[in-house]
Amino acid sequence: MIYCGHAIIPETLDEHQHSDHELVVCLSNNGAQLLEGDRYIPFKQGRLILIPENLSHNVLPDAPTELIYICFDRNYFNRHHLPEVQQFIEFHLQYQQYYLEQNELDLGLNLQIAERIKNELSMNKSHSQQLFHAFLCDLLIRQHRSFNLPVNHLPQDFEILQEFVEQLSVGEHWDLSLEEAAKRNNMSRSQFARKFKEFTGQTFVEQVNSLKLKKAEQLLKYSSTPLFQIAEEAGFHNLSYFHRLFKKAFNMSPKHYKEWVQHMENPIHLKFK
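Structure (tokenized):
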């Protein structure tokens, strides 16, 4: 089963969870998705946010926020004979990669699909379920293709990288160069780079930077430490490089993010009439 909806959210919603996965298509640049009470994902037009089943979440708008949501059960793509997409979803949820960066072309295509979903919802015609299935497949298959995963990608092909990626996720090996990481995994530089990208969907440098940014995000929310020290603690030894990467990922500077989070911690709650 699959169902879709269109929402314009004027105020902070109550935290909730449900038994389906949910794909959110952001139609606004304001506000954020809050996951499990402490992880903020800023909205960006065209950005896809994948929320796993039974994970508590809510929306924090700093102005009326518009989005499309598509809900589907955990085995949806296996039933529709798309095991590669099923595996793609399961991998990213396992490593808590709830949003994935896409290029401007794909963000624009996501917005076009969102508009088609809005139109379909407003018309209430026959075969809507089939169209919603096609829209969901379009969104996720393009995302899947952007990572160049092989058609017969099997988890056991990457057992050699499993432990290494888990160690990265807890802060180990962040200072390794690509050559050093390859040597640690008994691979050539080119072999390691290729297999790592296939396994994680990111290059080694992109993955490490994403983890560093996640740590910096937590420090910005819960620490009064100066920005240059936060950058150092998160593993960035070049402050301008940290600022550039953070702004690209969160659509605002570290300073503005900290101010925004402090504002969101004490929102003005309105009541629906």
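Confidence is low (pLDDT under 50) at residues 149-156, 266-273. The two ends are 32 Å apart (CA to CA).
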